[in-house]
Amino acid sequence: MPFRVRTATASRWWSLHTVFNTHCLCRNLYYSALSKRQFSGNCDDFLQWLERKAACSISSSLFIGNSSYGRSLFASKIIQTGDCILKVPYRVQITADNLLPEIRSLIGEEVGNIAKLATVILIEKKLGQGSEWYPYISCLPQQGELHNTVFWTESELEMIRPSSVYQETIDQKSQIEKDFLAIKHIFECSHQSFGDSTYKDFMHACTLVGSRAWGSTNGLALIPFADFLNHDGVSEAIVMSDDDKQCSEIIADRDYAPGEQVLIRYGKFSNATLMLDFGFTIPYNIYDQVQIQFDIPKHDPLRDMKLELLHQYFIPPPEDMKGLSHPVNSFSIKEVKSDSGKGKGLPQSLRALARVLSCTTSQEIDNLIAEAAQTDGRLARRPLQDISKEIQAHMMLLSLFIQLIEERSVAIMSLDSLSLCGRFSVRKLMAQDLLQGELRILKSASAWLENYCFSMT
Q1: Which domains does the chain have, with CATH numbers?
Q2: Is residue 112 within 8 Å of residue 268, measured between CB atoms?
Q3: In the prediction, which pLDDT does 288 show?
Q4: Is residue 9 over pLDDT 50?
Q5: Top-confidence residue, 48 or 3
Q6: Which of 54, 118, 176, 244 is most buried by a 10 A CB count?
Q7: For residues 72 and 64, what is the distance between their CA atoms, to the nearest angstrom?
Q8: How far apart are CA 75 and CA 231, in angstroms?
Q9: Please, which residues have CB within 8 angstroms of residue 418's CB and are 6 or more apart in sequence?
Q10: Each residue of 423-435: pLDDT tens digit?
Q11: How many Å from the N-terminal Cα to the C-terminal Cα in the chain?
Q12: Do residues 42 and 63 make contact, with C-beta atoms less than 8 angstroms apart?
């Protein structure tokens, strides 16, 4: 399935509400909204229902409240660093095991756990108040309330065309459709369980699971109550699985005063990941990165030879958490902090490929192969002995980055001319956050390349 799911510490994939990148910002927003917050009796009912179902206490440190940012969890008493603030037993988490045996037997092995868990949601929704999970299912976002890019219109997606998120969105929608076709026959055979569930319903359910589920040794699971936690990009608090205690728990990473909103980190995610899988972005995301491709020109007379080297010496990026793969000439660029440093943030493999592409004779390529054999086996990882060639290789990279910078600059300028309202204004801001973050990364890499080339002249 086309969604990110971790298995180690159970990372979280979507939030019901606005997220914050620093504790300072969270505190400022929280206190400015304090007078607007209203607490709902239904929130208290939810926790009581969950604790009755679990036959144990879920949390004595937290309560659910509705702030201007959505449903959230707040400290009900003083919380100190190291306190366990939440425990949700495995037995009250929803997994693919909740599928009825007669339904599970109809699902092929090619269907992943996200699609299976989405099927559980569709069945429980069909049951309505007759579902044992109704208090939880009824709290999930409805269709039209999510801003993940798979729900964007074609015109909205055009806002982010320069970014890799554009193509990743298309790939994700294609994968969801593939999964739907694989289980569509079950919907038709079990109309009583699924009602009139459509592809649109299935995509919504898959997005809910892909954005909310946590992975652990217990498998992929939806964890009620933990859904209400907001995100802080610098928090060290995460959802952890304790197999000995058979529960998921959270340990506070700092002190909280009574009434203060409690925050955790979903993961060290870029805005590209956040908008694709969670449906939100952060204005200045310290984890931003840019996915680029560096192609061998079709008119290059040594193209075939270089392509062979590319597949022989360059390791393709691992499949992402969605199970989608990237081509071997795809690279993730992070912010380069210093113009005069070692260029950390620019992959060494990208610079190596630039050196290969700068070769104009087969002898130059043979020299690189011989050098790799005499060292650590990696191709073109050392600066070229011919300084002019080394500069040329990095100027090729610089030219690519200048082009990418121009594309994003034009896209950002075009956003300024758009007058949107409602959900469209939200998505416009998301597009701006994404493109401005990528622009910042590309400019930092470009500045380093300029300085590197200048230092060699």
Answers
A1: 23-268 (3.90.1410.10), 289-455 (3.90.1420)
A2: no
A3: 95
A4: no
A5: 48
A6: 118
A7: 6
A8: 15
A9: 159, 428
A10: 788 999 999 999 9
A11: 50
A12: no
274 and 160 in contact (C-beta within 8 Å)?
no
Helix (H, G, I), strand (E, B) or coil at 8: coil
Do 171 and 150 touch, CB atoms closer than 8 A? no
Look at residues 8, 5, 12, 4 and name the one whose alpha carbon lies nearest to residue 265.
Answer: 12
Mean pLDDT (whole number) for 370-390: 94
Q: 24 by DSSP, 3-state: which? A: helix
C-beta neighbour count of 76 within 10 angstroms: 17
What is the total residue count of the chain? Answer: 457
Instruction: Find the DSSP H helices in 332-386.
Output: 348-357, 362-374
C-alpha 405: how far from its chain's center?
Answer: 23
Residue 270 CA neighbour count, 13 Å, CB half: 20
Read out DSSP for 26-90? HHHHHHHTGGG-B--HHHHHHHHHHHHHHTS-S-SSEEEEEETTEEEEEESS-B-TT-EEEEEEG
DSSP letter assigned to residue 295: P
* 3-state SS class at 232: strand
Rounded Cα distance between 124 and 131, Å, is 6
Enumerate the H helices of 190-316 as residue ranges. Answer: 191-194, 199-212, 271-273, 303-313
Q: Of 4, 51, 21, give the one whose Cα is nearest residue 212.
A: 4
